[in-house]
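Consider the following assembly input.
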Amino acid sequence: MKQAARSVRHKSRVALLLVEVINHFEFPDGKDILRRALAIAPPLARLKKRARAAGVPTIYVNDNFGQWRTDTKKLLQYCLRPKAPGLHFVEQLQPDDDDYLILKPMHSGFYQTPLDLLLRELGASSLILSGLATNSCILCTAHDANMRHLKVIVPRDCRTARTAREHGQALEHIVAMADAKVVTSSSSLRLGTLHG
Amino acid sequence: MKQAARSVRHKSRVALLLVEVINHFEFPDGKDILRRALAIAPPLARLKKRARAAGVPTIYVNDNFGQWRTDTKKLLQYCLRPKAPGLHFVEQLQPDDDDYLILKPMHSGFYQTPLDLLLRELGASSLILSGLATNSCILCTAHDANMRHLKVIVPRDCRTARTAREHGQALEHIVAMADAKVVTSSSSLRLGTLHG
Amino acid sequence: MKQAARSVRHKSRVALLLVEVINHFEFPDGKDILRRALAIAPPLARLKKRARAAGVPTIYVNDNFGQWRTDTKKLLQYCLRPKAPGLHFVEQLQPDDDDYLILKPMHSGFYQTPLDLLLRELGASSLILSGLATNSCILCTAHDANMRHLKVIVPRDCRTARTAREHGQALEHIVAMADAKVVTSSSSLRLGTLHG
Amino acid sequence: MKQAARSVRHKSRVALLLVEVINHFEFPDGKDILRRALAIAPPLARLKKRARAAGVPTIYVNDNFGQWRTDTKKLLQYCLRPKAPGLHFVEQLQPDDDDYLILKPMHSGFYQTPLDLLLRELGASSLILSGLATNSCILCTAHDANMRHLKVIVPRDCRTARTAREHGQALEHIVAMADAKVVTSSSSLRLGTLHG
């Protein structure tokens, strides 16, 4: 059996991570997060579009929601069913054919997933970290990236949390302790390319 | 966002691992392995059936074949298309709805995958290790299991490699160095339950 | 060569972690942290004494300070030299002969260290997390423990950070997001034994 | 607290690993391994000397022998005491002041150790893998290196196992399955520099 890891479709010093955007929002505080998430969907969709145009790979880093089936399509269908609470959020941010998908079992995108290996394959040393939620999966992923000497870039308008207070404190913490740079989404790509 | 990892559908001291059985056999030496793999498909299918009847979870541990899409269904369809070289092998060993699926990027089932976490969730401390190929993914997975103090059980008739010689040497090595027990497939379940 | 991991000297459902207490405080903000650290040294020393009396293992989880020599004794001597800034702090918290020592290269006590394996060997499922600094190594270690389903217990008076604000925010975050329990140091041992 | 990992003393595309050479040989089959190990000590010592002259970093990757104290000095003293069985072996291969030391809890040099991070710090993408024993720690470390896309170079005369048969089979396996190159010790450095 050979290792199949060598066939990534991009080479790029920066990668765009979309954390937990394929989401059913069916968990405690789901409604609170969804309400705030809807506000970041348009800038996030624009950022993804710009990344694509620039040849920057987009990686969906998503909870497996306890299914252990690694069947992203089924999860996507569930989140996009007509009555899904997050339908309007998820439909703006659907994965394209050349995006990458990583299912994570816990909070950090690096814990027991192949994210580290995928980033090495892509040649990426900078991450643009976007999605949900600033004080949970984003924060854990930022720390794990920093411990791997990956540069973390945070587009200010592309992440959120349950409350403005939690979001603000987590952002401040990530900048101070995980060495992240906070920028506007429109400047994040340029920065990643420069620092990668 | 909450961790979703707690919702496994089994509790069992032993788990059955099927390594690389959802396979397109389109790699160097693929034909050699397929020829030998066909011989282990029937006992493997029987072992899986017995595991199911006994409430023992089956975990498919499969290569992502460089797709990075975590889309097992698509991979399965590809391996089961009418002209697929391994059609007759794969169709005997298709995953059922309550099986678990792990996509691995490299040789070992534990490297950058959530297998370790899934086994903890299941409560499994013994692994019945079956599939392809004895001297590659099976050997690496056996060592990684042994380093995690998991007991490795090897059903003699449910694994193979490119050649009888490679298979034999690897089996001898796994028993000596990864503390594995070689048994017949019919006795492996009982042993796992005893030692789990 | 055999694995040597099986010879731990304790069996306990709870373990006491002392993070970064063998410290030279020779880094930016080192003076600020030291000033606040001196206040937690006496309760921390008492907690360690109680743990020992109760048969609860103490694990020092310490930065390797870039030395890559795994020579804890040398590091200890350096931190205890007559002119060391942190002499008065470190001398209250020196490791005993039956304590365990883990050198970590980065922030989290789990990242590229054998802490996970040591805890499995000890049988510990609860951690009492103490030391420096609340919003950095403690926070990262708490998240990594939570992702491994380890119960985190935080003795209120045994941890600190550069400022009261950073300490307070980090504590609030750890409780909310890493499912930790904040208690007085005197009740932490009892709690660990109950929940372990 | 800052991360201290950035202060390695070398930059090199290749690193020399000495596996299990600080050894007390007090385990089953220890005498058999020691007898064969004595034959590789002189070429190994010469290889280490050449590495040093070429600015290639030497990393000792050693068992912690269940002590969990990360006190390499004490372990070294024990292995060098007048009546130590392996005295004559270990004294030829003592670490120098600018060598690196990694204590591993299990077989592979990568499992729950900072070896991966240290190699990234050094900039090393090739490993010269030497020491004990070919079919155990060396084999596991070779596979783990290969899964990390590190190039493995095997100096033929600098490794051994309990028996010539086990050594030979393991060497053949490592070359076939972990993509390693077997060379003479005198050519390994040059090769590493070329391929790094």
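Confidence is low (pLDDT under 50) at residues 1-6 of chain D. Ask yourself how this observation constrains the way the partners meet.
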